[in-house]
Amino acid sequence: MEEKEFKQSNPEHLMGNAVLGKLDGKTVAIIAAHEFEDVELLYPLLRLSEEGAKVIIVPVKSGLHPRPVAQKPVSGRYGTPIPLEVMQEGKRYVCSDLKSLDTEKIDCLLFPGGFSPDALRLEESVLSLVKKMNSLKKTIAAICHGPQVLISANLVKGKKMTSYAAVRDDLTNAGAKFVDEPAVRDGNIITARVPDDLPEFCQEIMKALSQK
């Protein structure tokens, strides 16, 4: 997949007189397979790009789809397709594929929840990417069911983490220290529980990236 030219809006003009741009020069890659939780992709895309980050959306055509059609794009639980039909590609985001990602140029990997993580955790190319990013001490963020990918990449042992309630036992059994908090940061790993915690989740991501 050829990555389109990225033309980021000037963040200083996005909220009236508010001066944004905490993430100027930072790149965030959002990885999603079929049936991702729509808002857990859309909110970080808007919030992080608002602060000046370059956002790359990486659709992985994996997982079951309840509306199977030939060549159907990767879509969320509520029908959001990738690329996003309601947003111009190249302005706030670009699309890419896994093979085109350069870990040296990416500052954060982000995994939305939904059913997407259950498929992504079976993809060796995804797990290899996560492990490489972790070895480089890059930020890895996951919300809702997203931590399932980190479990399969063997990154959670001894880490303070949170998730959707159904993933709690998986994290605990994998050696993580589960806490019931909106968003948790332990080293380079950031996790959050549910869509209601997206503001705290994105705040933790912004803090982590602005400190580098």
Verbal overview:
The protein has 212 residues and is of the alpha/beta class. It has a domain at 20-154: Class I glutamine amidotransferase (GATase) domain (Rossmann fold). It has six helices and nine strands, in the order βαβββααβαβαβββα. The chain has helices at 38-50, 116-120, 124-135, 147-152, 168-173, 198-210; strands spanning 27-33, 54-60, 93-95, 108-111, 139-143, 160-161, 177-178, 183-186, 189-192. The protein has a seven-stranded mixed beta sheet with strand order 3-2-1-4-5-9-8, with helices on both faces.
Indicate the topology.
Layout: E1 27-33, H1 38-50, E2 54-60, E3 93-95, E4 108-111, H2 116-120, H3 124-135, E5 139-143, H4 147-152, E6 160-161, H5 168-173, E7 177-178, E8 183-186, E9 189-192, H6 198-210
Parallel strand pairs: 1-2, 1-4, 2-3, 4-5, 5-9, 6-7
Antiparallel strand pairs: 8-9
